[in-house]
């Protein structure tokens, strides 16, 4: 599974999920996560359907955050779980797609590894995008997680064009970003800059 630059959509920065997704898809990002905490289920379904159509057009992977039901309803490629969501083994029984999980420690990563397809590790750096975010694990914490599991690790949390190379040097297979693109004056340009750096490290 090739991950690379992993963009998580957000409606908190004056643009819609669809606008941001299309901007990054245009420049070559092929891993998109739909994350939304403030819409009704019906609104989320409508947006997720639009994102599914967009990602199909660009032959890209669509992951839905938290909601297995929504992922099934729109035929998403995958679902991303937190530590407090449905148990990984239960999700694997009912969802035949990519399952990712957020982790904050080596222990959490190792416990989840047998049930999931990729591990998200972070926050690497301090982030304001996620409310109640845990303390940063830093580059050393990220390295420990990468070296402790065989599944692909995606780094997340406070990653931008100034620190992304340090993150990529830890051996991760993907880098997830939100505000570095969504909060940019030119999301398309920012995505392209980050993608070019990621490709230098992760393209064969």
UniProtKB/TrEMBL annotation:
A molecular-function term among this protein's GO annotations? magnesium ion binding
One GO BP? thiamine biosynthetic process
Report the pathway entry: Cofactor biosynthesis; thiamine diphosphate biosynthesis; thiamine phosphate from 4-amino-2-methyl-5-diphosphomethylpyrimidine and 4-methyl-5-(2-phosphoethyl)-thiazole: step 1/1
Which branch of life, at top level? Answer: Archaea
* Binding locations of 4-amino-2-methyl-5-(diphosphooxymethyl)pyrimidine: 33-37, 65, 102, 130
Keywords for this entry? Magnesium, Metal-binding, Thiamine biosynthesis, Transferase
Per the entry, the cofactor note is:
Binds 1 Mg(2+) ion per subunit.
A cellular component term, taken from the record's GO annotations = cytoplasm
* Catalyzed reactions: 2-[(2R,5Z)-2-carboxy-4-methylthiazol-5(2H)-ylidene]ethyl phosphate + 4-amino-2-methyl-5-(diphosphooxymethyl)pyrimidine + 2 H(+) = thiamine phosphate + CO2 + diphosphate; 4-methyl-5-(2-phosphooxyethyl)-thiazole + 4-amino-2-methyl-5-(diphosphooxymethyl)pyrimidine + H(+) = thiamine phosphate + diphosphate; 2-(2-carboxy-4-methylthiazol-5-yl)ethyl phosphate + 4-amino-2-methyl-5-(diphosphooxymethyl)pyrimidine + 2 H(+) = thiamine phosphate + CO2 + diphosphate
All residue ranges annotated as the Thiamine phosphate synthase/TenI domain in the record: 5-181
The EC number(s) given in the record are 2.5.1.3
Q: Which cofactor does it need?
A: Mg(2+)
User: Which residues bind 2-[(2R,5Z)-2-carboxy-4-methylthiazol-5(2H)-ylidene]ethyl phosphate per the record?
Assistant: 127-129, 158, 178-179
- List ligand-binding residues for Mg(2+): 66, 85
Q: State the protein's purpose.
A: Condenses 4-methyl-5-(beta-hydroxyethyl)thiazole monophosphate (THZ-P) and 2-methyl-4-amino-5-hydroxymethyl pyrimidine pyrophosphate (HMP-PP) to form thiamine monophosphate (TMP).
Q: Which PANTHER family does the record cross-reference, listed alphabetically?
A: THIAMINE BIOSYNTHETIC BIFUNCTIONAL ENZYME, THIAMINE-PHOSPHATE PYROPHOSPHORYLASE
Into which family does the record put it? Belongs to the thiamine-phosphate synthase family.
This protein's name: Thiamine-phosphate synthase
List the source organism. Archaeoglobus profundus (strain DSM 5631 / JCM 9629 / NBRC 100127 / Av18)
